[in-house]
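Hey all, sorry for the wall of text incoming. These are the two entities for the joint prediction.
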Amino acid sequence: MNEQLVTCAALTKHYGSKPALNSVNLQLGRGRIVGLLGPNGSGKTTLIKILCGLLQPTDGSVTIDGQPISPYTKSIVSYLPDRMYFADWMTAADLFDLFADFYADFDQEKSLSMCASLGVSPRDRLKTMSKGTKEKVQLVLVMARKAQLYLLDEPIAGVDPAARDFILNTIITNYNENGTVMISTHLISDIEKVLDEAIFLKDGQVVLHDTVDNIRERESKSVDALFREVFRARNFEGGAY
Amino acid sequence: MFFRLLKYDFRSMLKQFGLIWPAALVLAVVNSFTLSGMESTSRTGETVAGVAMIVYVAIMIAMFVTAVIFVIQRFYRGLLGDEGYLMHTLPVKSWELIASKLVCAVAVTFVSIVVAIVSILIICRPFLRTWDADFFEFFHWLWKNFDGNVFNAIVILVELVVLLLVGTAQSYLMLYLSMGIGHLFHKNRVAMSVAAYIAIQAGINTVFGFLGGVFNNPLTRMLEHLLWEADGWVDLHTAFWIMIAATGAVAAVYFFAANYILKNKLNLE
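and here's what came out:
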């Protein structure tokens, strides 16, 4: 088992001529809850998708548990995308069977008990479920695994503040404590209380990576306050209006 | 892992065709009754028979159109669309994803053809009784021409089915490769897939045309000789296996190219 769970070296990704990630160097250890923080378009989703193998980097390298992206790394990564990814004809129970078939670390009993506590009927067709219920099913799929790396792309975007607490609570009470959770968001104040580390991503570059305690001590302000300072909109972008 | 993928692709297939296949067979049975009763029934009976036949033809057309849409959609939406977020994060190799879609697509086509043939036989069954003499005469002629060699006749039939399956797989792999090439572009991916399909087809025609011109196409000449001047069963079997191998070789090229794109160039943006 490698000491560093995630290592990115000079990781670069271009969409056509437009850079999305620009020479990102990053190392993540184990047993941490990490906030991947940045405004829209800063490269958060791109970084997560590269770690999942859904995007290929233009340059640089990335390893998870010392291995390049491969079926092995996919077997230890649990990914919550920013969209629905399942076929509508399935039921939640079908999806649980699928995950149990492919992921040795998927706990089917836990998935059913999580469904009960989240008010989801596993036998219902996904087609008949509301958007919020589908999101809960996806959250159950991801958190019922004992993964080494959880990649959660904007899990609290687009939901009301009460639901945000509910989702965050589900995450922190269900993740594998020896694993690392990476949560991408721009809603810092909601997740700051659960974070061990914060990564600020700006224009595809890591501008800050430190523990939340260090940030608070050094800057004498919350991560949210520092985020607002670092990413303050310039006048011509509407900041002064 | 491959067989687990197959399990889910086959479930998706049954979801789509679980109704249409039995419906085609049931309608064939209905038509066999309505058509056989037409001679002795009234105008109403004729109308019922006409409607039943129209519904049967419609369901046949729907079955094959659905099959083509299914093949394209299962690959495009399943691997290059939103469902790709699930499939490409499963701990499987990219060739297993393609192979699973391909086996399922060939199975859909094969079963649809079998359903079509069986349904036509069901419809024709009442008439076979009146055609008995001609029908059995035909088999008698066939038997004589095969010189009573049932074993070789069966093997030829199997070879024909294998050629059909490999040919179908090759056609679908060409579609997969085209969609893969279209996926390499950032914009207008569907239009680029269509353009890639046309380009591959043109490329294949040019390559084979060129080979034919330069070498006077020895393969074609050999096949013509083996098929039409067959000097016994061995020649005929050889011809079939050459065709199967040539089709399989082109299919393999498509497969490896499509796999290369999914493995090294995947960009689910």
